[in-house]
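Hi R.,

Here's the chain you asked about this morning:
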Amino acid sequence: MRQHAKNVAVTGFAGAVLVAGITAGLTAGGGAESAADERRAPAKAAQAEAAQAEAAQAGKTRQAETTRALLTGTTTASYFWDDGSGVRGDTGAPASGKPMQKGMFASPSWPMLTKVKVTYKGRSVTGFIGDRGPGEPSHRGIMLDLDTYSFRYLQDGGKPESKYDAGGGMGHLKGVKYEVLEWGKGPGKKGVPQPFGS
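And the predicted structure, written out as tokens:
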């Protein structure tokens, strides 16, 4: 009987130690998992923020694509480089008062500093109206003069032979798509381009 009582006491004690050990192990394991979760939390938060920012940017891009163009159409375009040199019919400094530069276009009627995107055969350039022209050719449907560099890039992706000569054997590009992205605040008329002097 005494032996039986000792066995029960030892077994009870061993069981309590075993349960305490298991509980301590689970608690310690849980603590390790919690610590690992805490270390992963900032990375997960950063990933979630990045995904949210990317989705917001994609939404802005889609919205911009659908609401950007104020006016679209097609025309024939020629090229120019007016810097006061007198070369190739140069008529002097651009009418906007800005120096001649890549991305400067001329329109016979649009307001100065109007932002315009032009596309031809899959190539696009965005520029601004900084001069008046073409003159007489606008009465024949040539409604945009592009700077020499933009003209040549649209033509074949190349670079002009000089700033006064686009090269490539073409003086006009027919079927150039234009998109007015923002009307300028300078003098001129909004809307479909009108021939020079109209």
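The longest strand covers residues 71-80.

Let me know if you need anything else.
M.
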